[in-house]
Amino acid sequence: MKNIIIIDYNVGNLQSVEAAFTRLGMTTTISRDHDTIRQADAIILPGVGSFPVAMSNLTAYNLVEILRERATAGVPFLGICLGMQVLFDKGFENGETPGLGLLTGTVDPIKTDEKLPHMGWNQLKFNQPNHPLLSKITEGDEVYFVHSYQANCPSDEVIATTTYGKAIIPAIVGKNNVLGCQFHPEKSGEVGRQILTVFKEII
Length: 203
Description:
Blueprint: E1 4-7, H1 14-23, E2 28-31, H2 34-38, E3 42-45, H3 51-60, H4 64-72, E4 77-80, H5 82-85, E5 90-91, E6 97-98, E7 106-109, E8 118-123, E9 125-126, E10 142-147, E11 149-152, E12 158-164, E13 167-175, E14 178-181, H6 189-202
Parallel strand pairs: 1-2, 1-3, 3-4, 4-14, 5-7
Antiparallel strand pairs: 5-6, 7-11, 8-10, 9-12, 12-13, 13-14
């Protein structure tokens, strides 16, 4: 049985993420304990809210360095929504805040004439159609977003995008073992389930 840890740092609904993995037959543990995290076969970093609060909480619980350590060690790592955003070098929400630096880039306000937050179902466009995380879904499938900020990062880190007005938004990002979804796979029906199924297979 794989040891999958969902990081508890008081940001977001951890139970909905846990339930999504339970439906796939996977046992997860919600924890911020360092020894538990060091034993993880995979790490899930969910998040809802603001970039500064997320990083403040990760710092307060002394989680920044251990998350960097485990990601660098090659442990499969999945960031969800805000948890994806803090994977990057820094965010510009209410000022500048350093992120985890596991992926290269910044998180900036979405530049669009459309209403913010970007909330609801939107289609995926594949930038890396052969990436394993896309293997069980089809280009054009829809997933569920809720956010006002987006990643700006190198093209080789962008696995799939979505479009909101004039904005092209990285929807799935990743490099090696570190992956992130800007949307909520746990709220994205069958498409989200298939994405999490692939992550299960990666583990």
